[in-house]
Amino acid sequence: MSAARDEHEEAAADIAAVEQANTDFYEALERGDFDALSGLWLPGEDLTVSCVHPGWPVLTGRGEVLRSYALIMANTEYIQFFLTDVGVAMTGDTALVTCTENILSGGPAEEGNALGPLVGQLVVATNVFRRTPEGWKLWSHHGSPVLAETGEEEDEEPAA
Predict the structure, then answer these.
(1) How far apart (Å, rounded) are the C-alpha atoms in residues 44 and 66?
(2) Closest CA to 25 of 76, 67, 66
(3) Which of 17, 126, 127, 147 is the most buried (most CB within 10 A)?
(4) Spans of biased composition, class Acidic residues (predicted)?
(5) Which of 33, 66, 73 lies closest to 138, judged by CA?
(6) From residue 124, how far is each of 1, 87, 92, 143, 153 by CA, in Å?
């Protein structure tokens, strides 16, 4: 019974560590902390990292992925993520996190304002992590926009 409990406790600790790595990723983005964000991705090019930002093509390789985040950080005045529907699945040294990113962001300030207009967006995301000697590191991030409902029924019958 003790071995089963130890295995359960180890799995729970792994899940908690992956959840923390996922949180660290979004917090680094919110702070605009490029060094912290860079440290969260798998090092080197031995395992090619990949990233798909909503509406972007697939980016592959650590350099290309990190350049994309530098560009986003340089052109985003304010961003905040509220994560919902977070799920973690693990197998061996690989973990999959799915979530909904409820994003609030603002562009450059208009005259007299501290921030530009704030915009909300929903993105569903998949983050894949690999276990390394330094902890869990991002291997892949894929974000896809959630299309907003218009409130109109497409299958409505025409009025007679």
Answers:
(1) 12
(2) 66
(3) 127
(4) 150-160
(5) 66
(6) 39, 12, 24, 6, 24
Question: pLDDT confidence of 5, banded at 50, 70, 90?
Answer: confident
Count other C-beta atoms under 10 Å from residue 52's C-beta.
19
Identify each DSSP E strand in 13-160 by its residue range.
50-52, 59-60, 78-91, 94-106, 118-132, 135-145
What is the residue whose two structure tokens read 């009025």? 159
* pLDDT of res. 149: 65
What is the average pLDDT score of the chain?
88
Residue in 107, 140, 106, 143 with CA at minimum distance from that of residue 123? 143
- Is residue 128 a contact partner of residue 94, using CB atoms and an 8 Å limit? yes
Confidence of residue 48 (pLDDT cuts 50, 70, 90): confident
How far apart, in whole angstroms, are the C-alpha atoms of residue 63 and residue 99?
25
Burial (CB < 10 A; 0-12, 13-18, 19+), residue 117, is: exposed
Q: Which of 32-36, 65-69, 103-107, 150-154 has the least mean pLDDT?
A: 150-154
Asked whether residue 21 carries a pLDDT value surpassing 90, the answer given is yes
